[in-house]
Every structure is written in structure tokens, then in C-alpha cells.
Amino acid sequence: MNWFHKNRKKIFLFVIAIFVIGSFAGFGSYFLTQSPFDAAIQVNGRKIPYKQFESLYQRVIEEQRQRSPDPLTDPQREYIKRQVVQSLVQEEVFLMEAEKLGIHATDAELAQVIQSIPVFQREGRFDVRTYQEILGRLRLRVEDFEAEQRRQLKVQKAQFVMASGVKLSSLEIPAKVQAALAQAKEEDRKKMLENMDGFRENLRRQEVQACLQEWYGDINTRLKVKVLLNKLEPGPKPSTPAVPTPTAPLN
Q1: Structure pTM?
Q2: Cα separation of 133 and 7, whole Å?
């Protein structure tokens, strides 16, 4: 018990860092009239269940409470809802691309990821009991958590495949290096010169980020996104999301 309270913030931050779904108990009167599997969002006809939206939303809210004791205002809550919607839409788009590329996440890959997460370990080794206890305290079912982890693996593998085709030519690099050095402050310039390999890798990551964003922007023009929260909960609703910035894989 003491160990969980001591690591509670780390655990919540970890859960927020990935998209998780689970049986969140705080749905209120929603369960009285609606199914948790009713679509909250549709992306090209593919349904994202309200359960998935609500679980991620509530965990972002919890993470905000961990950061600050001040109650969230209604505008802040609506902003968080829009961000959650954008995140789920982006995830669904990359999942569709993963399916096109024939990408799968194997049981062995899933186990490796979960077992490497520090909060699920005891004395440096994965501990099944700790894993189950933490998910239980977070009101997450093991099968739901692992299903979402599998989806995230597919997203990351799709991004990795897409990023692997992004190359900087030998002609581009010198020009980009000179431009960056010219704009950098003296202190930053010294750091860049001391670690040119790291600087070149950072340039490549920026190029990957730009390419993923361009690809997503193009896809977004053909996406058919429906936000159906107005049918499932009272109050103001987030509008159809703008183009979120995809995260470049750190390969």
C-alpha cells in the first residue's frame, strides 16, 4: 500500500503517456441509458467507443489534479476533451495505416514492453502481482490495458516504417547545419559543434516530424470524422478536431 502511494504520481504519468482504455467506474448516469461501446467518435466509419474516450479523458483529468490542487474550469475541461478527441483520431489514423502495411504486434513484443515498465517491477524484475495490483487500483482491466498496449505498438511500428524512408541527402545536411549554426546562440553553437552526430540526428528527427505532419495533413483532408459526444453526454461538445501534430518516432 505504501509503495503504491509513493509511486502513484509516476504510475498516473505513465498511464497518461500512452493511450489506455479500461473499466472506469466514474461514468455516472451514463451507464443507465447508454452502452459504453457506443461510438463517441467515428473515423472513416470506424468507431471509437465512448468507453475509450471517457477513460482517457478521466485519466488526463486525474493527472491534472496531481499537478495542481486548483479545480479545473469548464473551458479547461473542454480544452482537454478536444485534445483527447484529437489524440484518439490520430491514433486511429495510424492504426489504419498499420493495417495497410500489414503490421502486427506479437504477444512476445507486447510482453517485452509491459515487462520493461519500471512501475510493474520489483527489484528490477517484472512482477505479475504488482502488475495486477496497480491496474486494479487504477480501475483498469488487464485485458483492456494489454489491448491498448498492442494498439500503441502497432502505431509505433507504423511510424517507424514510415520514418525509415526519410533520409537527408549529403547535399542537404551541410546547408541545414550552417543555417542552424547561424541562428543559434553562442552557447548553443558550442554544444552543437561538440556533438555533431547528435545534431545531425536531431535534424533527421525534425525532417521525420515534418514528413509525418505533411502526410497526416494530406490524410486529414480526406478523413470523415464525426464527434458524437453530443448524443452521449450533456454540456458543450468539442468540435471536429483540427490536424494534430504526429509524434516522430525516436528510432
Answers
A1: 0.68
A2: 13
